[in-house]
Structures
1.
Amino acid sequence: MVTLARMPRLTHALQWYALLGAPLAWTAQLVLGFGLSEAACGPAGQRWGIALDAWEGLVFALAAALAAGGWAAAAALHRAVGRGEVTDANGRVRFISTTGLATGAIFLALILYTGTGVLSVEGCRR
């Protein structure tokens, strides 16, 4: 019979946030950014006067904050496992936190590239 030690809920939640926070933030940035540009640059959006730069900047800041938080969660878990503060008999927490560190850095860079690129373009171009 195999017995598994129950992991504390906070550690479990931090693992998933560390692993998926940055990729999901980047995905949300792309989807919301596309929707905002379609809404602002379409015929109806031009009449409504949607401030594209302000909304894109807000989405950029939120995505960057979520990705940085996920990367920080991965770093905290990685450090806690190294210090022995988190029991990790199978190495799962160490593996997920290491993967979160790598993917978090990559997706945070993608968020920064996307955000600065979008904010540097002026207005709607068709």
Note: Residues 18-120 form one domain.
2.
Amino acid sequence: MYHRIVANKVRSAFDQISAGHWEPMIAGMATEFSYRFYGDHALSGERHTIAGLRRWWERSVRLFPNPTFDVHEVIVAGAPWSTRIATRVRIHATLPDGSIYDNVFMQNMRMSWGRITEIHTLEDNVVLENALGRIAGAGVTEALAEPITDVV
């Protein structure tokens, strides 16, 4: 039953983000956390603070406005004090040139007592970097910016 509740909470978080509400995701983070998005591009990097994570989300939605997330799979294991979560999610967004961004990412998360302590995100970086190039080509130079990282 616990695993089903956690999986539903994860699906709900992606539904909220698709509806333009990413702040609840931030509110679900533990006091100490790590959010790592792999790659070497404007959305990559590692964040450990709410301020850094908020800046990352603000950039993310500036680059990919009105994204939608289709959760294909959520796997939950462990007890409430040490829960592991794995997801497979498809993201869609319309780029400034009118083309559609369509990609898949996987996340591996750790949760303790209902708060997220770790997120590792791996997206198809070839597809993502091509999209960031198209966004930059449309005049959005932030698509080529350095990653947002912070250290506590």
Note: The chain is about 30% helix and 40% strand.
3.
Amino acid sequence: MNNKLKPAIIGGVVLGILSVIPFVNWANICCCLWALLGGALAAHLYIKSSPVPVTAGDGAILGAMAGAVGAVIAVVVGIPVSIMMSAVMSGIMASLMESINPSQGEMMRAQIEAGQTVAGAIVNGIILAVLLVIFSTLGGLIGVAIFEKRKGAVPPPPQNFS
């Protein structure tokens, strides 16, 4: 299990950090792109270091482990960042709406600010954490399908050091 831990941590840190950086995290709107990438990265790193062919089950485990690491990062770092950035995001959205329809801008700003609460940020963080685990598991499966080229290869014989 230890040889799976390092690739899972690396993949999880990548997906966790990319999922909490403002504006960069919007790529998660596209089928949880960063979660898929983190799971596939964990699988790729494990495949490179594995002497035997990696199975789809191993990829799913690696993806889930990476997703768990990313979920912790998303909750611990993402929720405070989300709370701090809520005012900036509401200003951007309201300015955008004002440029399209000036009469709707102030109403949009009031609605956005009313919907932004600490409890809402926590609920969104928990939902994101669950989605990261699910989609990074899928990313691990996809990573094995893409990067594992040793299908059906015979494993090397065990070494006898006696």
Note: The chain has five helices and no strands.
